Amino acid sequence: MVSPADTPNDEDALLREWENMAGSDAGAAKKAAPKSGEDDADAMAAEWEAMLNASGSGEQVGTPGLNRGAQSTRVLNQDEIDSLIGFDEGEEERTDRGGMAALLSSGLVSYERLPMLEVVFDRLVRMMTVSLRNFTSDNVEVAIDNVVSLRFGDYLNSIPLPAMLTVFKSEEWDNFGLMTVDSALIYSIVDVLLGGRRGTAAMRVEGRPYTTIERNLVERLIHVVLADLSAAFEPLSPVTFRFDRLETNPRFATISRPSNAAIVAKLRIDMEDRGGRIELLLPYATLEPVRELLLQMFMGEKFGRDSIWETHLAEEMWFTEVEMEAVLDQQTMPLREILKLEVGSRIMLNANTNSSVDLRCGDQEMFAGTMGRKGNHIAIRINRKHRRPGA
User: Fold this and answer.
1) CATH code, 358
2) What one-character DSSP code corresponds to residue 59?
């Protein structure tokens, strides 16, 4: 057994042994390192001290030993990061964004301006004001908020639900459009048409689907708006917008690819204390047949028509030369008999000297008369004029 008195001596021996080991390691390091090692150690200590001092000011130097000799890098502050990304809290309304913000907002692409379309929508507002007053027997004010260009998929995602989405087709252009009626206008129209008292806001019932009566009343409103939209386009290009279907889920109202461009006109309808919004969406593919007309500048009330050119064209039409054909008779023969025809063959016509001769311009029958002679020329005396089909 070891007595307690021997313990301090053992501890002293152990300490002396550690000192000898540390001394031998330091001596070996001094022998292995050149004299410049002390200078490197001092330089390294100075670098570590500079790094510790710079950490409090938000700067960081390169890691010693790994990036020795390289330029120091610093940490960006929040303002510099926002500038690099393209976001600026103080100027949220700026449109000339850069950096990653320009990539994130690439859906808001600026498309070509269609001056005539703005005129059409102005005409639509005036016509809707009159037609909705007659439809509701109330004081109705219609105004257009704005006309924007955006992608179809972005518009579907931005529709506030619940709402009614109407898919309509343009017969002459062979494409579709979309009309959105928000819930505020739906309840307002139902309240007005069913005799609601004036001066009271329409009551909204949340959490239930629209009833059959509400859908039928809104469908009547949609027919009125589509008729006015057709009349607004008529001076530019005759077109008929036909009601196709009524949807409440935006997924079932998809009429174009999500990435396709479209024009959205937002209309505001006020009926004293009641009202709401109607949004008209026309894809650029729908407007493609009349794109050239929509690019024209508005001049007066003629929707871009040049009366001087129309008058000149009408006058020059009278000097146009057309070819007339006199048809005495026509027959239908089998192909085998036609192949048997040779030089000298005869075809008997079911006509005589008093038979009627038809004068044709292309495939259109113009006049009917009798054949005769005037001098050395064969002549036809016109007896009557053919009536055009449907005239």
Assistant:
1) 2.30.330.10
2) B
What span, in angstroms and rounded, lies between the C-alpha atoms of 328 and 158? 70
Domain containing residue 151: CATH number: 3.40.1550.10
pLDDT one-digit tens code per residue, 106-130:
544 555 678 888 888 999 999 999 9
Q: In 10 A of CB 300, how many CB atoms?
A: 8
Q: Tokens 């090692």 sit at which residue?
A: 37
Strand partners, 368: 358, 384
Radius of gyration, CA atoms only, the chain: 44
Query: Cα angle vertex 191, ends 185, 194, to 5°?
Result: 135
Instruction: State which residues of the chain have pLDDT below 50.
Output: 1-2, 4-6, 28-36, 56-70, 91-95, 107-108, 299-301
DSSP classification of residue 74: B
User: Which helix (H) or strand (E) covers residue 193, if one does?
Assistant: helix 183-193
Q: Does 130 share its domain with 209?
A: yes
What span, in angstroms and rounded, lies between the C-alpha atoms of 87 and 12?
68
Q: For 354-370, what is each residue's pLDDT tens digit?
A: 788 888 888 888 888 88
- Give the tens place of pLDDT for each residue, 234-257: 888 888 999 998 988 888 888 888
User: Among 294, 316, 345, which residue terminates a domain?
Assistant: 294
Burial of 208 (0-12, 13-18, 19+ CB in 10 A): exposed
Separation between Cα atoms, residue 198 and residue 277, nearest integer Å: 19
Domain count across the chain: 2
E strand intervals along 48-103: none
Residue carrying the six token digits 């040779």: 342
Q: Is 238 helix (H, G, I), strand (E, B) or coil?
A: coil
Q: Residues 6 or more apart from 246 whose CB is under 8 A from it?
A: 164, 165, 166, 167, 215, 218, 219, 222
Average per-residue pLDDT in the chain? 77
* Residue 80 is assigned to a structural domain of this protein: no
Is 158 a domain residue?
Answer: yes
Instruction: Strand 325-327: give its sheet, edge to edge.
Output: 325-327, 356-361, 364-374, 377-385
